[in-house]
Amino acid sequence: MKQFFYPSSVAILGVSPRPGNMGRNILANLEGIGFPGEIFLVSPKGGEYGGRTIYPSVSDLPETPDMAVILTPAATVPGLVNDCGQKGVKRLVIETGGFRELADDRRSLETEIVEASQKYGMRFIGPNCIGVICTESKLSVPFPLLDRKIMPGGLSIMAQSGGIGLTYLHGCSESKVGIAKFCSMGNKLNVNERDLLAYLIEDPQTEAILLYLESIVDGRALYDLIRSTSKPVVVHKSNIAATSHAIASSHTAALANDDAVVEAALKQAGAIRAHTVHECMQIVKGLSLPKPKGRRLGVISRSGGHAVVAADAAHRHNMELPDFSEEFLAPIQQATRASVIHLQNPLDLGDLFHFELYVDILKNALAQDDLDAVLMMHGYRGPEVEVSRQFVAKVGELCKEANKPVALALLVDPEEMIAASRLSSIPLFTFAEEGILALSAAEKAGGIPVPERLGCAEGFDQNMVQRLVATADRDGWLELPEALHLLNAARIPVAPFVTALDAEDAVQAAGTLGYPVVLKAVGGADLLHKTEAGGVALNLGDAEAVRQAAQKMMDNLKPQRLVVMQHLRGGQELILGIKRDPGFGPVVLLGLGGTAAEALGDVSLRLAPVDDAEAGQMMDQLKGAALLKGFRGQQPIKRAALLEAVMRLGILADQIPAIAELDINPLLAGPGGVMAVDARVRVVGDAPKPGN
Length: 692
Hints:
Distance between the termini: 22 Å
CATH class of the largest domain: Alpha Beta
Number of domains: 5
Largest sheet: 7 strands, mixed
Mean pLDDT: 90
Oligomer: single chain
CATH architecture of the largest domain: 2-Layer Sandwich
Low-confidence stretches: 243-249
Strand content: 15-25%
Structural class: alpha/beta
């Protein structure tokens, strides 16, 4: 990947003197940034442009360029890729559009490009992209003319959309966020986010990474890469409304929709998920400031109302607002005019009009040992403009000196914001909420703490599991007894049960287990939702009750077998399940369970396998988590037992790819442990691995 960003020579295919030619913009961008290497121009009619020779073909070039940029009609691209291969070019950036994104019948052109690249051992970015930038090597090959200077820095941007990529590139330029590298990936026929992310993680110039994705090539690989790095990774994943939500046959598949999996996987990996362009820009601005060492925030404002709004935002983002010290507040108290405002954190400076003191106030706030960051909100107009601009110009210097971030929000009109941004060496914010979002994300970014482990043994009876998987019917479903035996083989506790063939068998089994019992009909996929079908009878207290319930099921439902199970009393009903996502692989789901599982939708997801810390996070992030921790006098559940069950199911999902879906619903949890009382399992003969 490095060769895409550090070529010593570049050929531009598609440059001509013709008015409106877009290839000339590529040349202008290279010359504008000061690219030091050789630049070759290629176009069939030859000629000259800007004092440079235009060669009629790639074969006519006096030497083999390190990289070729192609911007010609789509139909000509496969031939040019072949020409580049014959010349020995190994890196291509294909900016031409008009392939599968335009019409499905254009896929054949893409196939030809891929075949030619494979024949000659070439790697290429695109097609349908806008190019690559590297500020260190002074490479800039986008076809849109870049009229804003790109400030060198530590942020690298990978964008599937050229338009969104340019928006981020321009937004960073306006916000004083420096760029290391930029790549528009387009249709991702060859180079994709997985390739680029692996490179940028190792790239010494890249300090933070921004990914804009509309599709994910290999979710599991992306997850593994993000989790492997301490560099902050921001992911703006869009295109969620187009996600296919097929009718699911299990609760887990219904609850774990595709974007929920993306959200969970990115959080588990340690990425920062952004949902809008605006949100993403605030996060990126926060990453360009010194990293906060904690979540203790000082808020300073000229407006009491904005201070209150800031306090609310701090609460939403779990930021702390420690009290300011008396030593810090004393000189401010002396400088106020009427002393009608109580000085606290947030600090309202509405009664202080000595703007020359603002530098000292901010400097002293940054010196406080119990503050990790400062949000400064300042509004001004008229005669206050000049002295306020001097203050704005000074804030970046104070940040650098203290090595602490300041989110400076200016309460001014748009014209003044533009003027102030030219003076500031750090990003500016418009509202308090933006600044606090930026500081909060920056503090969370980069690195995942290593958890303490409970010591859950990974071993389970794989031979037994495989034998049980082989009993699935032609639709892939295990019947209830086999599903429960599979959980036992995975060492997940299951309520005691016995299978029966008829009513008398059921009575005998109930006597063995002890009353009361539950009776369940077993008969294949049509009885998967047994409660609705009348295939479950609860709290049967004697032999006659069992006999009557069993006979009724046999007569009405014609089940193949019956399951007689101990009726367990008490406990919180949970759902614990597996879904196999096509991009991210096995996913574990935990939520409030029972018959209302899908109606409540209170679930948490993680990619499998999970460790004890992740299992604990799954439990704690449930909206109904209080019910599990001892609510209104009830005893808390045995946390370690639930976490072990979650981990064991994750191990099962990871090691047995044939399991496509699995529900334990309900899983009863109480102070004595957890117990599965019902399960559904669907298997597939040849489960694909994620990314294939």
